[in-house]
Amino acid sequence: MLKAGVLGAGHLGKIHLKLLQQSSKYELVGFYDADKQASEKIESEFGYKSFLTMESLIDASEMIVVVTPTSTHFECAKKVLNAKKHLFIEKPITETVAQAEEIRDLAKEMKVRGQVGQVERFNPAFQAIKDNIHNPMFIESHRLSEFNPRGTDVSVVLDLMIHDIDAILSVVKSPVKSVSASGVSVISETPDIANARIEFENGCVANLTASRISLKKMRKARFFQRDAYISVDFLEKKCEVVKMKEAATKPDDYAMILTNAEGVKKQIYFENPQVEENNAILDELESFYDAIKADRTPEVSLKQGTEALRVAMLIIENFKKV
Hints:
- It contains 9 helices and 14 strands.
- The longest helix has 18 residues, at 302-319.
- With 322 residues, the protein is α/β, with parallel strands linked by helices.
- The protein has 2 domains: 2-118 and 280-299, NAD(P)-binding Rossmann-like Domain (Rossmann fold); 121-238 and 273-278 and 311-319, Dihydrodipicolinate Reductase, domain 2 (2-Layer Sandwich), CATH 3.30.360.
């Protein structure tokens, strides 16, 4: 077991505390939160040990989960890494790309592992479908949520869209060529709704929409590739693969056949990969444990977290050009 501590005991921090305590791979040491009154309440209500300083928690732990506001990620991460402790840091990795690069390089220098909390990578629907995604050439994603003041200290791109940016970068094996985007601030001081178009050097195009002022929730992505259409519903945890193949000479009566302009007949068939129920946050934490023990690159590395932030910042910079 690894001794684990949590920096930040807000909504998400409490979830991490609960899951680390449940995990058979970690020994929960305790937590630190700057809000002393809230810390005392959490300690008395749940029994988690509250540390008086960030440094004392880091010293007592082998791995630290950083679930503080994004504005504090950089300083917290530096303290963890300089103490040569493994780092799990929630998305976005930091406020700026330069900070993310410094954290990425510091982890390498200190010879410790780091993982970014991109929970949708561990969504069971995405886990079930990702091996079916091969060289997609068009991707469309919609991530819509109802308004919640929590998280509005950053743009909707860093709050919501970054989930889809990360998932898309994980399956498109090509550098980003260009980005164009537009965003609108409706309630918050930062954009609440945004659309972005990412073009990759291999010709793939991704069209992403994110909103935190919608009347209903939606978290869907669609991947189009040669002879296949793949859909993922992150919210409902469902996925589907629609494939095309050459039609049989004598197809059965229930076969779905399409004939193109050249007279070529194609048969449509459906696959519904088995989606295994899971707790995605627990899975990402335990995946990080496995990476540490095996001394291998984590599922969502600090490098990947940096690249997702880099694209997110390119999108945000495009807002200023509109």
